[in-house]
Fold Ribonuclease Z.
Amino acid sequence: MKITSTEKYTLLTPEQEPIKTFLIELEKEYSGLKSAHLIIDFSENINTTVQDLLLFLKISTNHRENGTSFVIICKGIDIDEIPDEINVVPTFEEAVDILEMDAIERDLGF
């Protein structure tokens, strides 16, 4: 897993590993990442399914409860099949937009 941190977010990119293996790695590293706004980039994983993304439901829910953002970048997914607890977008730019919208909502008390 490649981890790139900036002032506004931490970008996590799998390195050619199966999504389940990436999830196990993420869970091991999570204590050091739980206070960061996370973007997970699956844009290069062309075979990612809705079921793969649902594996991140627990982490997404925990992250949101901690007051931080959690966004997954994945192309070719029907957003209607994804629960509201997981933010899935097709591009990096949209992921950053979600982080900004989440920050506005937190500032407004939502």
In short: The chain has one domain: 2-108. The two ends are 32 Å apart (CA to CA). The chain is about 40% helix and 15% strand.
